[in-house]
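[Discussion] Sanity-checking designs against the backbone

I'm trying to build intuition for which residues belong where. Below is a structure token string of 510 positions. I'd appreciate it if someone posts a full sequence so I can compare it with mine line by line.
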């Protein structure tokens, strides 16, 4: 300390003490910051020296255990995964056969009869596409995509089964990532259970069943491996819950603590106590059951919600009702949920199912941002999974002699209709879509597909409905004239003679 500092210290000892404490705190904080910077630099150097395979293998099991626990015990995590699955997969993506007429004036138009036959065979098979015969293809899609968001390491396996004459001999099975062996044998091209040749996977080494050490080698053309690599070159996936699991856990703990506080605040206790005497321990290890240390009887009130203690003669009756209020609960929960929503790439409103803070503009903007997230997910799922499933289906139907796949064709074209999007304001959106189609910025096929519908199927159903309505002596899509419309038209007819443009007659009201 300088001479001036010692002089001030002798005159103001309190100031000197605070200054000394501040210096100690500053040195401590500086040390912590330096230690944190050094640890970060060491970690980054260590990560640069770790191979992709080592990185995934070291972290996959730990993150997967956390993700499984979250989905089993955390309501927010369950809601997030289910909301994502519902938006991307929904009721399931459906195929639309795209066979076209080859000749005549109808060349290039859809061959509706051929497409109907193909879609009918596929629909019949898809009803029980699961290996057990109990689940549909739509259910398998949801299971597969849900597992992708929990574990980011899931497989769809093809099985050839005998389903009877004239039926497609194909069944599918969703296999979790835990069933794939972690074996790595670089000499034989095996990395974490995946066998490679010339950089491409050729086989997968699965355990025959959970808990078994016996491995079954399955050809890669019989398996779809669904995962998103977090680093180039990764052969297995890491759970996407990694960046947000601690926030999910903190939110659950905070909610449990708040529930405990609310239970305490709502509990009530009646005490018989002698005036002026302190209340000692109500119960000890030596106390008989349902008695306190003084021999007073303890009685629960309303399923443990409160406690009644029988006192002695001259004791008074007192009530204890702690008042606990928490004004920070809602802001804290909202803040954490917004952080989680950012981490997994969805809107807060979708994660929290809270639309109280939105108006039309913000709700529409939130919906559009979510669509930008889900549409690429849908495209990837179609390209990586459903395109392969379609090839498996066509091959199996042809080998099984199922009509019409016995016909000789170069291919069976198909397009998939994903989960559609509902509008925030249907009237405005329909008007905007109709205008876009009219001026050439959109087309009816894509407009229907965005709603999760098939234009050609819609047209056929509309024609059938109109034919049925005509047979019943009525019509569809016609607006009936209401009493209000008639009144307005009558008023205009009465005003017309005095109008300068009355020669044009009264204006019709639609």
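Best answer:
Here's mine. Compare freely.
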């Amino acid at each position: 300390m300088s001479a001036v500092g010692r002089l001030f210290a002798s005159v103001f000892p309190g100031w000197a003490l605070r200054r000394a404490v501040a210096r100690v705190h500053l040195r401590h904080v500086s040390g912590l910051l330096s230690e944190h910077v050094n640890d970060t630099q060491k970690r980054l150097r260590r990560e640069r020296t770790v191979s992709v395979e080592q990185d995934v293998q070291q972290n996959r099991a730990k993150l997967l255990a956390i993700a499984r626990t979250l989905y089993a015990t955390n309501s927010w995590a369950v809601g997030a995964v289910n909301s994502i699955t519902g938006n991307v997969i929904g009721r399931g993506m459906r195929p639309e056969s795209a066979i076209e007429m080859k000749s005549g004036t109808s060349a290039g138009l859809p061959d509706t009869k051929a497409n109907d036959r193909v879609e009918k065979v596929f629909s019949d098979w898809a009803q029980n596409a699961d290996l057990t015969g109990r689940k549909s293809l739509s259910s398998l899609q949801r299971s597969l995509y849900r597992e992708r968001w929990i574990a980011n390491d899931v497989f769809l396996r093809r099985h050839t089964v005998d389903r009877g004459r004239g039926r497609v001999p194909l069944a599918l099975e969703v296999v979790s990532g835990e069933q794939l062996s972690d074996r790595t044998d670089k000499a034989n091209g095996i990395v974490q259970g995946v066998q490679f040749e010339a950089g491409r996977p050729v086989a997968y080494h699965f355990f025959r069943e959970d808990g078994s050490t016996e491995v079954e080698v399955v050809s890669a053309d019989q398996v779809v491996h669904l995962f998103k690599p977090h680093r180039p070159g990764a052969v297995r996936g890491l759970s996407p819950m990694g960046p947000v699991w601690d926030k999910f856990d903190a939110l659950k703990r905070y909610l449990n603590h708040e529930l405990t506080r609310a239970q305490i605040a709502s509990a009530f206790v009646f005490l018989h106590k002698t005036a002026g005497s302190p209340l000692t321990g109500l119960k000890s290890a030596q106390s008989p059951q349902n008695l306190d240390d003084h021999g007073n009887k303890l009685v629960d009130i309303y399923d443990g919600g409160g406690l009644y203690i029988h006192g002695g003669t001259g004791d008074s009756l007192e009530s204890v009702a702690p008042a606990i209020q928490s004004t920070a609960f809602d802001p804290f929960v909202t803040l954490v949920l917004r952080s989680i929503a950012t981490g997994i790439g969805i809107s807060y409103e979708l994660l929290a199912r809270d639309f109280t803070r939105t108006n039309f503009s913000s709700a529409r903007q939130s919906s559009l941002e979510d669509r930008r997230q889900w549409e690429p997910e849908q495209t990837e799922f179609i390209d990586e999974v459903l395109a392969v499933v379609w090839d498996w289906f066509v091959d199996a139907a042809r080998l099984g002699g199922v009509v019409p796949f016995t016909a000789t064709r170069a291919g069976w074209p198909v397009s998939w209709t994903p989960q559609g999007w509902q509008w925030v304001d249907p009237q405005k959106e329909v008007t905007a879509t109709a205008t876009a189609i009219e001026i050439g910025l959109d087309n009816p096929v894509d407009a229907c597909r965005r709603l999760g519908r098939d234009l050609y199927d819609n047209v056929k159903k509309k024609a059938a409905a109109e034919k049925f309505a005509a047979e019943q002596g009525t019509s569809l899509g016609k607006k009936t004239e209401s009493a209000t419309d008639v009144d307005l038209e009558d008023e205009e007819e009465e005003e017309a003679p005095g109008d300068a443009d009355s020669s044009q007659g009264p204006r019709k009201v639609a």
